[in-house]
Design goal:
Helix content is 34%, strand content 19%. With 160 residues, it is α/β, with parallel strands linked by helices. It starts with a helix and ends with a strand. The structure holds zinc ion (ZN).
């Protein structure tokens, strides 16, 4: 089931050129964004491997684990600026009950009682994610909230 990945990796390793790349973020940047497979975090920001820490989850929401990773990134890995990037047409832009129902239909079972962190008000929810990072006691960094437009590839600053 995963043979294609191993085969592709052999070709990748044949031409491997990232050996010796420092673990610190060369552009002092961390990006928090969605798992949506239409998003290319490095390419859309003009970044290369080694430039930034990329944190992804459904919706690009700032969760406890994102705060954990950002604390490590800012304290030990040279990150001084953080971009939280939500996007248009995100599957998380829905109500929690609707998402729970959709997952229940897909798995034909009762979904686990998770906090799905759905996005019910895109601007307010992005602002609240930015604020959660700004309030975090051990994270010293400039933080911005942006929205990526899936249909144009353009970013707009929503929370400055
Ligand atoms: Zn999304």
């Amino acid at each position: 089931m995963f043979e294609d990945l191993i085969a592709a990796n052999r070709l990748y390793a044949d031409d491997f050129h990232l050996a010796g790349l420092p673990a610190k973020a060369a552009r002092q940047l961390a990006v928090v964004t969605c798992i949506d497979s239409r998003i290319e975090p490095l390419a859309m920001l003009g970044l290369a491997p080694g430039d930034a820490k990329i944190l992804r989850n459904a919706g690009g929401r700032v969760t406890e684990d994102v705060l954990r990773s950002l604390t490590i990134a800012t304290s030990l890995l040279s990150v001084t600026r953080i971009a939280v990037i939500h996007h248009t047409a995100c599957a998380l832009i829905t109500g929690p009950a609707d998402l729970t129902a959709a997952i229940g239909r897909a798995v034909e079972a009762e979904p686990p009682p998770l906090d799905w962190r759905t996005i019910t008000d895109p601007d307010a929810d992005l602002a609240s994610d930015v604020e959660a990072i700004r309030r975090a006691p051990a994270i010293a960094a400039a933080v911005v909230g942006m929205r990526y437009d899936i249909s144009t590839g353009l970013l707009s600053e929503v929370v400055t």
